[in-house]
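Why does residue order matter? Because the sequence determines the fold. Keep that principle in mind as you read this record.
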Amino acid sequence: MGLDLHTIVVFSVVEFSGVAAGALAGALEARRNRTYHFDLVGVLGLAVITALGGGITRDILIQKGPPLAFLDVRYMLVALGAGLVALLIGSGAESRVSRFIWIADAASLGLFSVAGVSRALNAGLPILAALILGIITAVGGGSLRDVLMGRTPRVFERGEPYAIAALLAVLVFLAGERLGLDRSISTAAGAISGLVLKLLAARFQWQTPTARFRAE
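Structure:
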């Protein structure tokens, strides 16, 4: 399936923005961890995994050649660069690290969702498959990071609506595509919608309900 230059540029901007935001969130999360004392390798490793894990998983499932992160060195350079930026944040700014983590995580969620569904559609996959791969791209890296940090992935626990925000971003993007909007407009609308839902969830303390059986 041929791609025009405009589509390629839009996809690249969204993908690399998501990589930078994801790597920053992963590195900052590693630095503030109180259970494990991560060193330089640990922080940068978790930055790369958070940033690229979801995209690599997506590309492996699409089976259209090696993952983009292995073909284009810029993915790794952007992830490592964002990880190094996180390492430069001094200990005196620790009280602000939590906010940085949240903002970077929220930004990467919407960006990765749109990048994932866009990549799947460009590969010729049907809409349902593209929707699923968009969500996997958004939450995959963070889930791998959580597992390596010794905890249950947040996306599986009661709390912030990670997967729901990713789903909203994907649905808004697909709606824009169905309406025939320009790809850049659909992309911006999808990414922003995921971010807005995260902001609203934080403002009004919305949480996903637990599915646990009630005690008798």
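DSSP finds eight helices and no strands in the chain.
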